Amino acid sequence: MGSRVFAVIVGIDTYKSGDIWNLESCSNDANQMRKWLMNDLSVPKHQIALLLNEKATKQNIEHTLNTHLLHNNQIQEGDGILIYFAGHGSSLKAPHESRPFEVLCPWDHDTKGPEGRVAGISARALSKFLTDLSKSKGNNITLMLDSCFTSPPPRSRDRSSIRWTSTNKAVVDDLYHGQLACPKPQKRNEGFCSRNWTTHTVVTACKPGATATEGKEGGRFTSSFLEVMRSTPLHSTSFTTLMEKINLKMGESQSPHYSGLVNDRLFNAIPFIEDLRYIPVQFHSEKGIRIELGSLHGIEKGAELSLHPHNYVGSCNPAIATVTIHDVHPTWCAGRPKTSFFPRRCWARVPLHNHGLSYARLKKAVQAFLHSTVAHKSSFSSRPVSRSVSISDFKGTTGKSELIETADASKTLLVPFLK
User: Fold this and answer.
1) Which of 37, 91, 202, 230 could bond to 43 as cystine, CB 3.0-4.6 Å?
2) Within this chain, do residues 176 and 86 fall inside the same structural domain, yes or no?
3) Are strands 5-11 and 80-86 parallel, antiparallel or unpaired?
4) What is the CATH number for 249?
5) Per the database record, which ranges form the Peptidase C14 caspase domain (predicted)?
6) Dihedral (C-alpha) 346, 352, 353, 356: value to the nearest 10 degrees?
């Protein structure tokens, strides 16, 4: 089962209007976000809607938000929802309003449409949509915008690399058309980050009033975001810590901003799935490390397996030690690590391509491990078993210990593999 995350991703470099200068890395940013979801978080392709350039008209974006998210019966309450936009932002002056309307610029922004000028998707309209979405699907919603809504300084040298454009022809009345029509004027006009929403989290590439920039390598925010995501153990890192890391990566000239409903984890804790390549290890004071894989599973004497702090897909999981196998039996093996400093609770990564370990063999290994756990249960029933894994559990631990049950008592994590 893939991660329960659904996404609408939009990237626009080229615009229909000749008055809007084109950008150069928004569509690539969108593609990279899609690859991160699919390759790192194992989100199935059909759970991601991707709209690039001329496909990202206002009508198509609004239709996709409705069909892929709001009216999608596959989304269950509490599932993670991501709406990502990379492209120009803009603003429209609003008569009798204290502030202009902030809008996202679709491909046909500020051009003639069937109902008048296309004036973009306003913060007010999108906020109304997200309120309706949260009532139907829960508030595990993240709106991520690599755009800005304030014009750059008149003499800015990086004018062409700033993701903002002026709106010259569309007016506020044009915002009241479309599937995500902007609600009529209220007591106050609000921007994307103007208050603490309880329906969703908003993450923008820069602070209100600042500018979002891009380069050939991508948007400054998106490239930093993806680099941090791929180098951080997401399952044990708080959302605020992630944003601090992104801020440090981006530098002083541009700082990301977030507001609204801030959850403990990204997407309110992505439902990380377990990686079949990782097998829980047991420690024995005499035999060293025992792994429930043996000659029947392609393990040979002298093989080297790396040890890792967890077994989650999509969360940075570097090797913390290497174990050399010295004793091989049909269904299990034993070895000793090259260093004495590593956590008691860890997983051995099985190099499938080196040992020809098929899924069927791995399934047998899991079954053997469960069987061995039951066999040892009575003799170790008085010992507490950890039900969670945290990076803090790994500090100051060594491999010198008695035989213990590890990896969340194994049943919780491994039973899904046998389905």
Assistant:
1) 37
2) yes
3) parallel
4) 3.40.50.1460
5) 6-259
6) 140
- Amino acid letter, residue 129: F
For 51, the token pair is 């709209």
pLDDT of residue 143: 94
CB contact burial 146-155 (16+ within 10 A = b; e otherwise):
bbbbbebeee
Contact between 99 and 150 under an 8 Å Cβ cutoff? The reply is no
Rounded Cα gap, residues 210 and 149, in angstroms: 8
**Same domain? 261 vs 290:** no
For residues 119 and 92, the answer to whether their CB atoms sit within 8 Å is yes
Q: Where is the domain boundary, 213, 242, 268?
A: 268
**In this structure, is residue 131 part of a structural domain?**
yes
The pLDDT tens digits for 51-110 are: 999 999 999 999 999 999 999 999 998 888 999 999 999 999 877 767 888 999 999 999
pTM of the model: 0.78
State how far the Cα of 414 lies from the Cα of 419, in Å rounded to an integer.
10
264 plus 345 within the same structural domain: no
Rounded to the nearest 10°, the torsion over CA 10, 14, 19, 20 is 50
- Which residue range is the domain that position 11 belongs to? 5-268
d(CA 402, CA 405): 10
Q: Is the backbone of residue 251 left (phi > 0), alpha (psi -120 to 50) or beta?
A: left
C-alpha 18 chain-centroid distance = 35
pLDDT over 60 (residue 17): yes
Average pLDDT over residues 4-31: 95
Residue 273 lies in a domain: no
Share of the chain above pLDDT 70, in %: 75
pLDDT, tens digit, for every residue of 175-203?
Answer: 888 888 777 665 556 788 866 778 889 99
Query: Which one has a higher pLDDT value, 21 or 414?
Result: 21
User: Which has the closest alpha carbon to 110: 55, 159, 165?
Assistant: 165
How many folded domains does the chain comprise?
Answer: 2
**What is the Cα–Cα distance from 306 to 64, expressed in whole angstroms?**
43
- Which residue, of 235, 268, 301, is where some domain finishes? 268
Residues 190 and 307 grouped into a single domain: no
**Class of residue 132 by CB neighbours under 10 A (exposed 0-12, middle 13-18, buried 19+):** middle
Mean pLDDT of 335-351: 81
